[in-house]
Amino acid sequence: MKCSRPRWPNKGLVLAVGAFTLLLLFSLHVSPPTCAVPEKPPGTPETLTWTSPPARPPPTPCHANTSMADLPDFAQQPQHIRNFLLYRHCRNFPQLQDVPLEKCSQPVFLLLAIKSSPSNYERRELLRRTWGRERSVQGLQLRRLFLVGTDPSPHEARKVNRLLALEARTHRDILQWDFHDSFFNLTLKQVLFLQWQETRCTNASFVLNGDDDVFAHTENMVSYLQGHDPDRHLFVGHLIQNVGPIRISYSKYYVPTVVTQEEKYPPYCGGGGFLLSRFTATALRRAARVLDLFPIDDVFLGMCLKLEGLKPGSHSGIRTAGVHAPSARLSSFDPCFYRELLLVHRFLPYEMLLMWDALSQADLSCGKRTQVY
Ligand SMILES: *[C@@H]1O[C@H](CO)[C@@H](O)[C@H](O)[C@H]1NC(C)=O
Ligand SMILES: *[C@@H]1O[C@H](CO)[C@@H](O)[C@H](O)[C@H]1NC(C)=O
Ligand SMILES: *[C@@H]1O[C@H](CO)[C@@H](O)[C@H](O)[C@H]1NC(C)=O
């Protein structure tokens, strides 16, 4: 045991601390419930009540497929690969947090669906305050969702689930399912989101799917998307082609032959952030139903597109592999540089705030346009 019994300095102090704690608990208990004011997009009528979606019966628990253990090399695989194989067939998990029906009751132009780990509270807060703010841009509605699983450690999960319940109550932007939030379960998260969207937000014209550590220039995105028809194919991001599975067992992206024999991946867009139309979301949903889950989420979407006979496209304003400033004199944090982009990967929470603030300055003077497209 690592824990030793605490030794109290004296009884008087213990009593004082105890009394204070009681007082504090009591005052918290009797104070009127604080009503968090939900963000209201400009121009919406006052909604005093939020409508919860109808409760669904929890799915039957999904059990490990133990016959996977008979596959050659199974026992030699790292734990996360074994877990992936054992639970690959599981697709129905109880939903722990949902958003009110009103999320998509107005025509949504751009739905921001951001993958976030349960404990990434600071990232979610910064996104809410910056580029992910629900608002209207050029008269078109933006809505925000965070896609979250549960912490694999039961102790941590108890705490963090309460945090997520609190965030859901305050911000109404959490979709949480009861599966372990791990790198190899990101595909599951993506598939569950597409399923959710089918019944709850199918009319959103476009979706930005991305991570919570990107900076997305949502205003530029709206301008770009306005030139597109939501009922035609659109899937753009940082295009990756001519790569295949990494067979080095210590890599984060290691995929052994027991998972796939293929040596080539179809073209796909880096998972940090990509844009798609509702036409393409429907196609992905259809394909995802028939394909086996593949542990790397962005590659899986490439496989879905291929099955549907669709191709991912490249947008030079989406830089999920980091940006290279056009010249050594330009810092890659220069807001003038970002003014031209749609999305950039790897931002610290405070950097999001700085960039958002800089880009929002009306008098941002940048001189010569820096060519980044
Ligand atoms: C379990 O694994 C075996 C061996 O790979 C496979 O043939 C079978 O279809 C799997 N069962 C389910 C329910 O996925
Ligand atoms: C995915 O989530 C399920 C359900 O929580 C879990 O049993 C499985 O181990 C997870 N898979 C990975 C690769 O983490
Ligand atoms: C979505 O749009 C279709 C027509 O495009 C319409 O029939 C349907 O009622 C809409 N659904 C919602 C939930 O707004």
Automatic annotation (TrEMBL):
Membrane topology designation: Single-pass type II membrane protein
Keyword Isomerase: no
Principal place of residence: Golgi
Domain of life of the source: Eukaryota
Catalytic activity, EC: 2.4.1.-
Keyword Transmembrane helix: yes
Cleavable signal peptide: 1-36
Cellular localisation: Golgi apparatus membrane
Pfam families for this protein: Galactosyl_T (PF01762)
InterPro entries named among the record's database cross-references: Glyco_trans_31
Keyword entries, A-Z: Glycosyltransferase, Golgi apparatus, Membrane, Signal, Signal-anchor, Transferase, Transmembrane, Transmembrane helix
Start and end residues of each stretch annotated as Disordered: 37-60
Protein family per UniProt: Belongs to the glycosyltransferase 31 family.
Protein name per its UniProtKB record: Hexosyltransferase
Source organism of this protein record: Galeopterus variegatus (Malayan flying lemur)
Gene label: B3GNT3
